[in-house]
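Exercise 3.2. Students should predict the tertiary structure of the chain below and write it as structure tokens, then compare their answer with the key that follows.

Predict this chain's 3D structure.
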Amino acid sequence: MTKTILVIGTFDTKADELDYLIGRIRGEGGQVLAMDVSVLGNPVIPVDVTKHEVAGAVGETIEGLIALGEEGAAFEKMSAGAALLTRRMYDEGRFDGLIALGGTMGTDLALDCAQALPSGVPKYIVSTVAGSPLIAAERMATDVQFILWAGGLYGLNPLCKSSLSQAAGAVLGAAKAVEPPAFDRPVIGMTSLGSSCLNYMKRLHPELTARGYDVAVFHTTGMGGMAFERLAAEGAFACVMDFSLQEFVNMLHGSLVSAGADRLTGAGRSGTPQVVAPGAMDILDLAGWQEIPARFTDRPFHQHNRLIKSVAFNAEERRMLAREMADRLAAATGPTHFLLPKGGIEEWDRPGGPAHDAEGLAAFINEAQGSLEGRVSYETLDCHINDDAFCAAALGQLDLWVSEGLVPAGKSAA
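Answer key:
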């Protein structure tokens, strides 16, 4: 059960903190592989991977990086080298989990190193900006863990030691306890938005499981869609059921509740068969503390909780969203089928519901049909997205693709 942890940091400016972290890991029975990513100074404690090796991994020298005269530019090169070495050393079996620490520079580098590793490898970043909106969704590895480094900018102190000791236990414990994804059965990647707004997964999950698939449902509140897109782009899914496009419309309208600019492209790039629907495309989600943009102040409003709130799109905005959606789907390299439920696209979008706008929904449907025609296979349904008929249509398309050999058949549980 002895596990080795890759510890990444600037061993010139944060030697005391890194030495303490390493000592806590070793004190709990772990081994350490230390990578120095500093540029200007030299480490004052021994390291296993030197800054010269990190720079050399991308054909640079430390002297050359210093000559750039710009800290940010130099550290971008170090980030690229550290990420390459991180993956190379993992593939060589040299470590079992990663932990990195830093301020904005160290966090920026750590994000690249975490992304270099596959899902299931423990990844911890101890950061002075953990949880900050400075960290864009697309920079996040699918299963990275953050620990806020309170009082840790410079020098050891009781608060800093508390954070670092917990981090040491967290990464070592994770390396011992982790069950990496085995993917023994084909996986269906599905998106949804909570279970009150969109609840089709409650019916689809048992049906798909009975067909021999594992089902991974991603919550489309930014981080969920980010993880979904990254895995879809890697070809991790046998088929995608992307039924909640809320993050896509958020991204187009500048909301912080975004999965990044690549939303609705991952499955298309990897050629993964995808069944898509416009779940919750009628509303813009905002962070609970964000001011509602002035152009939306006259719209229907829903305060979901203290973290998130929503406003409705008008008919013209929905037409634009339909066109943008169709353009992205048309670029897909694999089978794509679009389900267009005419009865509503989220639970509050029913006749009499607080977000129902018959004119806006009709405008979206008409624009979607015109934009998809001749470019993407689509099907118009006389039902609501949360109705049984919608689930039946989704399953029917999956079954068709299985019969055609486009999607692998499921496997019975062992």
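Discussion points: The chain has 13 helices and 14 strands. The mean pLDDT is 93.
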